[in-house]
Specification:
Structural class: alpha/beta
Helix content: 10-25%
Number of helices: 11
Order of helices and strands: EEEHEEEHEEEHHEHEHEHEHEHEHEHE
Number of domains: 2
Radius of gyration: 20 Å
Largest sheet: 7 strands, mixed
CATH class of the largest domain: Alpha Beta
Number of strands: 17
Distance between the termini: 19 Å
CATH superfamily of the largest domain: Medium-chain alcohol dehydrogenases, catalytic domain
Oligomer: single chain
CATH topology of the largest domain: Quinone Oxidoreductase, Chain A, domain 1
């Protein structure tokens, strides 16, 4: 075991604090990563505050990890010391079920292992990327292509794949009329990726405050959902709607914006239920679906896609001692558009 510096939540009701955590020794199939940057995802806040169920504390969150390979195990063939790499929301799965064999590790039938707050195969509780180092099985380590800086690459490991996967799965491309609901950490990546795929992109946000940003990110149109006329004007306008909002919204109002055979996909994960009226689906043969992250191969595909199109996330880099402030700002939607922790600012072990 090795001791590394980290930030952790002592409980669901206390601020995160500087601490140390233990990482396992590098095994034959493991990669030790010197973490350089870690993104802050809204999921981190939901998890450490117990909004998605109870957790074992202390807990170090973070599943948007970018860094450099510092050591590899004797059997590792996919990565070498010095490689630029990332780790997303998964660090293990059974590797044997039909989902894993199909490259859908996020849907592992025997239970995948999340990057933090999950029970790993050895029975330990995983700890995430708000730390200086992490040890991960090589099969769950992604290569970050040249052309994407590590700081803007970190949020791609969750926000990027969470939006890329449904856009690809439902065949978004040239000629597709896409609406992105919410222009936040997820939404801004949805706009970038949908635009790069060749779709006609509309942002649906509560106000027009971020309209200039949305158009710069690649949106063709921008409407305020706080204006009731928006829902009248845009009725039946979209082939695909991606809802990135992590709060309860009137799903039925948005479903009516879909064209015949249109699909609305939820990637935001509010704690509250989202009631759906059957007639909102029946009229127009519409579909309401959900999507998680992507598998490892698709996540690598996403990273390569972003590199080919020359973009990463829009970020604000913070020091580790600003994490709690950043959490409150995320809840106020006061970030454009993802906080990223510079892990060089973590207190040294023993300091």
């Amino acid at each position: 075991m090795r001791t590394v510096s980290a930030y952790a939540a002592p409980s669901a009701t206390e601020p995160l604090i500087a601490t140390t955590i233990e990482r396992r020794d590098v095994g034959p199939n493991d990669v030790l990563i010197d973490i350089k940057f870690a993104g802050i995802c809204h999921s981190d806040i939901h998890t450490v505050r117990g909004e998605w169920g109870g957790q074992q504390f202390p807990l170090t969150p973070g599943h948007e990890i970018a860094g450099i390979v510092a050591e590899v195990g004797s059997n590792v063939t996919k990565h070498t010391v010095g490689d630029r790499v990332g780790v997303g929301c998964l660090v293990n799965s059974c590797g044997e079920c039909t989902s894993c064999l199909a490259g859908l590790e996020q849907h592992c039938l025997n239970g995948n292992v999340g990057t933090y707050g999950a029970v790993d195969r050895d029975g330990t509780i995983t700890q995430g990327g708000y730390s200086s180092h992490v040890v991960v099985n090589e099969n769950f380590v992604l290569n970050i292509p040249e052309g994407i800086d590590l700081d803007v690459a970190a949020p791609l490991l969750c926000a990027g794949i969470t939006t890329y996967s449904p856009l690809r799965h439902w065949g978004v491309g040239p000629g597709t009329r896409v609406a992105i609901v919410g222009l936040g950490g997820l939404g801004h990546m949805g706009v970038k990726i949908a635009s790069a795929l060749g779709a006609e992109v509309t942002v649906l946000s509560q106000t027009l405050n971020k309209k200039e940003d949305g158009l710069k990110l690649g949106a063709d149109h921008y409407y305020a959902t706080g204006d009731p006329e928006t829902f009248t004007k845009l009725a039946g306008s979209f082939d695909f709607i991606l809802n990135t909002v992590s709060a309860a919204i009137d799903i039925n109002a948005y479903l009516r914006l879909l064209a015949i055979d249109g699909v609305m996909v939820n990637v935001g994960a509010p704690a509250e239920p989202l009631p759906v009226n059957a007639f909102s689906l029946i009229g127009g043969r519409r579909s309401f679906a959900g999507s998680n992250i992507g598998g490892i191969a698709e996540t690598q595909e996403m990273l390569n896609f972003c590199a080919e199109h020359g973009f990463g996330a829009e970020i604000e880099v913070i020091s580790a001692d600003q994490i709690n402030e950043a959490y409150e700002r995320v809840l106020r939607s006061d970030v454009r558009y993802r906080f990223v922790i510079d892990t060089a600012t973590l207190p040294a072990v023993g300091a």
